[in-house]
Amino acid sequence: MKKVLVFFNSQPVEVVDVLKPVTSVTRNYPNGDEVSLKIMTTGIHSLTGDHVEICVASDREFSQKEVVSAAKKYL
């Protein structure tokens, strides 16, 4: 399993667990439209030089700061 941070439709970030081979997350807009969000990986470097890979899916642009904040809070 892998944890995916989902940034969707201006809602608060959500964490979902999916199987490792899964490549997208499905969400529905309030009007009923369904969208498949591609799972991407992003890296975060710590002050100690560690590198952490984080899986994210989104229908909007997000900043590295949002990812770091969500990762600290939920992962």
| Biggest sheet architecture | 4 strands, mixed
Structural class: mainly beta
Q: What is the gyration radius calculated from CA atoms?
A: 13 Å
Low-confidence stretches: none
The residue fraction in helices comes out at 10-25%
Q: For the record, give the distance between the C-alpha atoms at the N and C termini, rounded to a whole number.
A: 13 Å
What percent strand?
over 45%
Order of helices and strands: EEEEEEH
From the spread of the alpha carbons, the general shape counts as globular
Characterize the quaternary organization of these chains: single chain
Protein name: Phage protein
Organism: Siccibacter colletis
Structure overview:
- This protein is mainly beta and 75 residues long.
- The protein has one domain.
- The chain is built from one helix and six strands; from the N terminus they run ββββββα.
- It has a four-stranded mixed sheet, covered by helices on one side. The chain has a two-stranded antiparallel sheet with strand order 3-4.
- A hairpin with a 5-residue loop joins β5 and β6.
- The protein is globular and about 45 Å long.
- The two termini are 13 Å apart.
- The mean pLDDT is 90.
Task: Describe the structure using short key phrases.
single chain; 75 residues; mainly beta; four-stranded mixed beta sheet; two-stranded antiparallel ribbon; 6 strands; 47% strand; globular
Would you spell out the secondary-structure blueprint of this structure?
Elements: E1 2-7, E2 14-18, E3 24-28, E4 34-38, E5 40-45, E6 51-58, H1 64-74
Parallel strand pairs: 1-6
Antiparallel strand pairs: 1-2, 3-4, 5-6
